[in-house]
């Protein structure tokens, strides 16, 4: 049956631009495995495994991808996402916030397995309901709050979704700083740009300079280390100022403070609000 012979408007609504029935997206299992291998490592050793986060961008546009956390990654003795994170309890939660921030800002649609948004302690069990009571505990409620805010930001910022399947929507800023274990990139959309910086170590980095595509004020629209998410509240005082100082292939740059085991998202003041 061809698209032209489909009579039902409801069915026609699912017909893709390629003439199929709308099953356009493919699970990016490589991204899932590579990023989980990276984030599970002690930060002390991450500097030797930068490629596990950069390699997925080599093939990111060969398909229309979904970034999944699949069922198999939270069962069969693997543990929950939270328990797979390295370090003490504070670092486990910080690493989880950092990983979720990476997932939401990386090109590709998002698919989070049930319970991950609660910071589950135990792996998923099909014989038991989700442990909704966890949200009565501040550190778990903070994870749920972060996922909610990431969802809202993903919808409201065109740069974070509009060009998910187009190379013009992504640029690396920092991909090779193994000494500091920092990654930074910028997402572009028709309404402006959002810069993302990820600090993969438990130490804050003061006066860390990254390139940016425009001069002026950049507003910090999300900080995974904010107190509201259970973090240490290390950040940039609400934003950063970019001067006409070229860096990282960009015409401007700014000094920022990437928080410990944290992610920050910066939007240019002239971009869409």
How would you portray this structure in words?
There is one protein chain. With about 270 residues, the chain is an alpha+beta fold. It folds into two domains: about 25-160, Alpha-Beta Barrel (TIM Barrel); about 165-270, Sandwich (Immunoglobulin-like). About 20% of the residues lie in helices and about 25% in strands. The chain has a six-stranded antiparallel sheet with strand order 4-5-6-11-8-9. Strand 5 and strand 6 (about 190-200) form a beta hairpin. The longest helix is centred in the middle third of the chain and has 19 residues, at about 140-155. The protein starts with 8 loop residues before the first helix and ends in a 5-residue tail after the last strand.
List the helices and strands and how they pair.
Layout: H1 9-12, E1 25-27, H2 29-39, H3 51-54, E2 64-68, H4 81-84, H5 89-105, E3 109-111, H6 138-156, E4 170-177, E5 182-189, E6 192-199, E7 208-212, E8 216-223, E9 239-242, E10 252-256, E11 262-268
Parallel strand pairs: 1-2, 2-3
Antiparallel strand pairs: 4-5, 5-6, 6-11, 7-10, 8-9, 8-11
Helix pairs in contact: 5-6
Fold-level CATH name of the largest domain: TIM Barrel
In round numbers, the mean pLDDT is 89
Judged by helices, strands and strand pairing, the structural class is: alpha+beta
DSSP helical segment count: 6
The N- and C-terminal alpha carbons lie at a distance of 44 Å
Low-confidence stretches: 1-14
Percentage of residues in DSSP E strands: 15-25%
Q: Walk across the major sheet and give the strand order.
A: 4-5-6-11-8-9
| CATH architecture assignment of the largest domain | Alpha-Beta Barrel
Order of helices and strands: HEHHEHHEHEEEEEEEE
Q: What CATH first level of the largest domain would be assigned? A: Alpha Beta
Radius of gyration: 19 Å
The strand count comes to 11
């Amino acid at each position: 049956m061809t698209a032209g012979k489909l009579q039902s408007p409801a069915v026609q609504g699912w017909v893709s631009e390629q003439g199929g029935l709308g099953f356009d997206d493919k699970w990016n299992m490589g991204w899932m495995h590579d990023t989980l291998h990276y984030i599970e490592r002690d930060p002390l050793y991450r500097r030797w495994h930068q490629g596990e986060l950069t390699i997925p961008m080599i093939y990111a546009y060969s398909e229309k991808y979904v970034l999944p956390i699949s069922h198999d990654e939270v069962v069969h003795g693997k543990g929950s996402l939270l328990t797979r994170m390295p370090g003490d309890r504070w670092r486990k939660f910080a690493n989880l916030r950092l990983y979720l921030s990476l997932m939401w800002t990386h090109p590709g649609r998002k698919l989070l397995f049930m319970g991950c948004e609660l910071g589950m302690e135990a792996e998923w069990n099909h014989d038991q309901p989700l442990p909704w009571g966890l949200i009565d505990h501040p550190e778990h409620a903070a994870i749920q709050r972060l996922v909610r805010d990431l969802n809202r930001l993903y919808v409201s910022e065109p740069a974070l979704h509009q060009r998910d399947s187009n190379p013009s929507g992504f640029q690396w800023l920092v991909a090779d700083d193994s000494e500091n274990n920092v990654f930074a990139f910028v997402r572009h959309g028709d309404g402006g740009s959002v810069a993302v910086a990820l600090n993969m170590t438990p130490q804050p980095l003061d006066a860390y300079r990254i390139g940016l595509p425009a001069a002026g004020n950049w507003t910090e629209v999300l900080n995974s280390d904010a107190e509201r998410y259970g973090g240490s509240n290390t950040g940039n005082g609400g934003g950063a100022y970019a001067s006409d100082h070229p860096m990282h292939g960009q015409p401007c740059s700014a000094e920022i403070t990437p928080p410990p085991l944290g992610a920050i998202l910066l939007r240019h003041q002239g971009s869409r609000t």
